[in-house]
Amino acid sequence: HVQLVESGGGSVQAGGSLRLSCVVSGSTYRPYCMGWFRQAPGKEREGVAVEEGDGTTTYADSVKGRFTISKDNTANILYLQMNNLKPEDTAMYYCASERCAAVTGLDLQGWQGYWGQGTQVTVS
């Protein structure tokens, strides 16, 4: 049974930083891709950053240069370093895992695998 558990969210002022973590337990796809997604109140869920099995990363235009996705393969932890946070970054952040063959970058349609419960990020 695969579980994804996010942590690291919180409330920060604009310009601040947070680092989100997503611990993956249980067996998962090989090769697998992992990504961060977010959903603000009243808005659709959107892709933020994904890391493909070969190390390729893709970012939403709105976070390029501010967010960095990384993965500790030994510990099975996915990170999202978020710098220079803006109020528009306020959302529930989710991590997800999916077979790389099913994924096309940030396109949500491909991410039908495993999802965490989310961690709230609030920027004021």
Description:
The protein is mostly beta strands and 124 residues long. 0% of the residues lie in helices and 49% in strands. The strands form two sheets. Strands 2, 4, 5, 6, 9, 10 and 11 form a seven-stranded mixed β-sheet that branches. Strands 1-3-8-7 form a four-stranded antiparallel β-sheet, with no helix packed on it. The mean pLDDT is 93.
Task: Pick out its properties.
124 residues; mainly beta; 7-stranded mixed sheet; 4-stranded antiparallel sheet; 0% helix; globular
Whole-number radius of gyration? 13 Å
Principal-axis shape: globular
Q: Tally of extended strands?
A: 11
Structural class: mainly beta
Overall pLDDT score: 93
Largest sheet: 7 strands, mixed
Helix segment count?
A: 0
Helix-strand topology string: EEEEEEEEEEE
Helix-strand layout with pairing:
Elements (H helix, E strand, L loop, with lengths): L2 E5 L2 E3 L5 E8 L6 E8 L6 E6 L5 E3 L7 E6 L4 E6 L8 E9 L14 E2 L3 E5 L1
Parallel strand pairs: 2-11
Antiparallel strand pairs: 1-3, 3-8, 4-5, 4-9, 5-6, 7-8, 9-10, 9-11
